[in-house]
Structure formats: structure tokens, C-alpha cells
Design a protein that fits this description.
110 residues; alpha/beta; Oxidized Rhodanese, domain 1; 5-stranded parallel sheet; 6 helices; globular
């Protein structure tokens, strides 16, 4: 199973219309305090031990899942992990929140 990619332009067009989509943000709490998008659930990679073992109970493996981080590296790691756990519709948000903040000036750069 491969990981798909979503551009920040595609994400912006779909925000608010994502009822059947799981939004995952893998950044740290201090990063989220600087810039965050609505609707994303936080699963910081540094806290893997608290959520990793039960990820298939916390998220639906059959639901489209979009994953965000700062630039796209940590989210790519999370995407690989989700696929290894049987998730079937995982997509990395290309460029992360840094790219999204270029698109939307209301989202701060950091």
C-alpha cells in the first residue's frame, strides 16, 4: 500500500468539507500553539508511546486520513506507520503547515 499526497491547495479547497476524513497533526504542542488548522487531531510523534499501540482504536483504518507536520517529513513517517498498521487511504500533506501558511496569511509562519 502506498502513501498518497495532498497539496496545501487541495487541502484548503477541502477544509470545511471533510466530514468523512480524519485529519492528523503530528507536531509538538508548542508548534501547535504557534500555528494550527481547525479539525486536526494531535498525535505528536514524540508521544508515540501513549497513542501508538492503540492507533487502530483511535482512528479508523478504512477512512481517508490526511497527515500534517511542519514541512512534510514527520508526517511522511506517520503515513508509513499508519500504512504498516493497515490504514488504506493515507495521504501526506505536501509541504506541511509551512506551505499552507504561504497560501493562507492568517496562519503564522514559524
Amino acid at each position: 500500500m502506498s502513501v498518497g499526497v495532498v497539496t496545501v491547495q487541495e487541502l484548503a479547497a477541502r477544509l470545511g468539507q471533510l466530514d468523512a476524513v480524519q485529519l492528523v497533526d503530528v507536531r509538538e504542542p508548542e508548534e501547535l500553539a504557534l500555528a494550527a488548522l481547525p479539525g486536526f487531531r494531535r498525535f505528536s510523534l514524540s508521544e508515540y508511546g501513549t497513542w501508538g499501540p492503540q492507533i487502530t482504536e483511535l482512528l479508523d483504518p478504512d477512512c481517508e486520513t490526511l497527515v500534517l507536520c511542519h514541512h512534510g517529513v514527520r508526517s511522511a513517517q506517520m503515513c508509513g506507520f499508519l500504512v504498516s498498521q493497515g490504514f488504506t487511504q493515507v495521504k501526506n500533506i505536501w509541504g506541511g503547515i509551512a506551505a499552507y501558511s504561504d497560501l493562507d496569511p492568517t496562519v503564522p509562519h514559524y
